[in-house]
Specification:
- The chain is an alpha/beta fold.
- The protein is 33% helix and 18% strand.
- It folds into 2 domains: 162 residues, SPOUT methyltransferase, trefoil knot domain (Alpha/beta knot), CATH 3.40.1280.10; 61 residues, Orthogonal Bundle (Trp Operon Repressor, Chain A), CATH 1.10.1270.20.
- It contains 8 helices and 9 strands.
- It has a 5-stranded parallel beta sheet with strand order 2-1-6-5-7. Strands 3-4 form a two-stranded antiparallel ribbon.
- Helix 2 packs parallel to helix 4.
- The relative contact order is 0.15.
């Protein structure tokens, strides 16, 4: 899986190269390429934004600068479109990210992620290059970098070899429910004991208990999922 990220702040992506994803990068299971949009400004001050037509607060990222950054990946063939790559714009106006979308995107081989900033990006370049707009929630952040990291982290976990398959199949949302409670040593902590069934070694009873707890937790915390 290859991720190309168009951003004004590539230095913000340091955390994505740690832990499990860091190992996935080292093992060449995923590839993350950060493209600084500012490098494609033809202004001597590397200006990438301007005031919005029609007035209003804030600044808008200029379409030509964003497009040149995109073309550095896509090339000028295929009418400027990156063949085979899906272009995603991280924006509060997009469809909300969920587990199904994560799993669908993990089947792609190449994602180009566009991160907005300021008051957003000139609509014309969005219309020209973007295939899909995605939001991570009904709130506004200062830019698309953190949402892009959320997207890459969630999608990468479903790339073959990044995680153990059993871990993916049993986690929250994998079957429409939240995950059952987890316990480890010590057997007793602050007077609280691990449920006896998990110590029994009876796999059928353990599986039944986990399914029941998964349903109970979903009903208590996220009853909307049961609909």
């Amino acid at each position: 899986m290859k991720f190309d990220v168009l951003t004004l702040f590539p230095e913000m992506f340091a955390p994505i190269k740690q832990s499990i994803l860091g190992r996935a990068i080292e093992n060449k299971l995923i590839d993350i390429n950060l493209i600084n949009i500012r490098d494609f400004s033809e202004n001597k001050h590397k200006k990438v934004d301007d005031t919005p037509y029609g007035g209003g607060a804030g600044m808008v990222m200029m379409p030509d600068v964003v497009y040149r950054a995109y073309q550095s990946i896509a090339g000028k063939s295929n009418k400027g479109k990156a063949g085979g790559a899906k272009v995603i714009y991280m924006t509060p106006q997009g469809k909300k990210l969920n587990q199904k979308k994560v799993e669908d995107l993990s089947k792609e081989s190449h994602l180009i992620i566009l991160c907005g900033h300021y008051e957003g990006i000139d609509q014309r370049v969005i219309d020209k290059i973007v295939d899909e707009e995605i939001s991570i929630g009904d709130y506004v952040l200062t830019g698309g970098e953190i949402p892009a990291m959320v997207l890459m982290d969630s999608v990468s976990r479903y790339v073959e070899g990044v995680l153990n398959e059993d871990s993916i199949n049993e986690e929250s949302f994998s079957n429409g429910l939240l995950e059952y409670p987890q316990y480890t040593r010590p057997e007793e902590f602050e007077g609280m004991k691990v449920p006896e069934v998990l110590l029994s070694g009876h796999h059928e009873n353990i599986e039944k208990w986990r399914k029941e707890k998964s349903y109970e937790i979903t009903k208590m915390k996220r009853p909307d999922l049961l609909k």
